[in-house]
Amino acid sequence: MADITLPTEIHLDIVTPDRLVAHDAVTAVTIPGKNGALGILPGHAPLLTELASGAMEYTSGTAKHTLCVNWGFAEVLGDRVIVLAQSAERAEEIDVERAEKAKLRAEDRLKRFDDLQVDRERARIALIRAMARLETAHKLRG
Amino acid sequence: MAALLDIRRRIRSVKSTQQITRAMKMVAAARLRRAQDRIFNARPYANQMMALLSSVAARTADRCHPLLQERPIKRQLLVLVTADRGLCGAFNTNLIRTAQIYLEEHQDRDISIITVGRKGRDYYVRQPVKVVGEHVNIFGRLEFSQSQPISQRIIELYTEEKVDSVDFIYNEFKSIMTQRVMVESYLPIKPIVPAAGESLIDYIYEQPAQEIFNALLPRYVEIEVYRALLESQAAELAARMTAMDAATNNAADMIDSLTLYMNRIRQAAITREIIEVVSGAAAT
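^ inputs. structure came back:
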């Protein structure tokens, strides 16, 4: 059987409605899929998944980048990974203190058994977002 | 000599008005550039989303998501996107006129309105129409997160069957000189054409294609709403820039003609004095 030459890098695009967050050639990507984290290496089979909120990482050359993404989709196509996220922030941009506060506030709101479904849902989403931010920030700081 | 002083005073006041209009023009121009960048930045996301949506649509047989469901239109929701501020030419007037025509044309439907922007709200608050939502002061710092409450609200109203159709009226940014008022239907979502021609890639689906398709649809509405807001913002700034440019030019013309008039009066006064002196000398 002839050797199949696998590509050595993937083109990663991370886009949000506000901006193009990353457009890079990378050697490895980890994305937070809805059913668990997914590690993608060059030559991965085509894959389509919904994203959860959480940390994603990618390695480009020797530099390792960590980002926090919030909901969206990821499409893997052999040599291309497209991440469509509602929002994405680089770990360096995250304000840990603010995220901690947001987490406490959301937890507090969830504890008070509000009848309003909408408010509970909002607090739950805020909590998930804050936790994703913190997770990302901790990854960066070791 | 009172007339001369009056004219001087007027020239001074026109000059200060001109300074203001010139400053507003500059500000609008700077912000317009940023607004255009934002439209540009939103494009990759929208394009990828469309591509993904049509490629997933090719793989799903069952397309009966609530947002695709067509119902006989009895209750209509109109989202009117105006500006927060005036001094931008006929921008808001055109929008409101179009909205009025729209209301007249669809009298058979029970229409409710969501206004985006202060000007639209200020107008419809005093009209006998049902305003079910208002979003003001969002254009100062427009980001995707600010468009979400609007999109979530229309999705909610539609899925709960409180309205049967959602239309948008907004200004589209065509170029710096022209804006076009658009009336577009947003919900139900027009049937999505499955991607044809391209070879269907065999994906590994982490979730069933159906589930992904259904999750994509609300996102699609969100990005469309965001796009309308971005277009409107750029159009507003372009309209303001053109209006303020015209105002600055008009002020310059006015200053010119007033200055000419003032000089003429001054010269007339000098001539009269000379004649008085000469005729006085001749008399003696």
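The domain at 2-27+246-283 of chain B is CATH 1.10.287.80 (Helix Hairpins). The mean pLDDT of chain B is 89.
thumbs up if we can close this ticket
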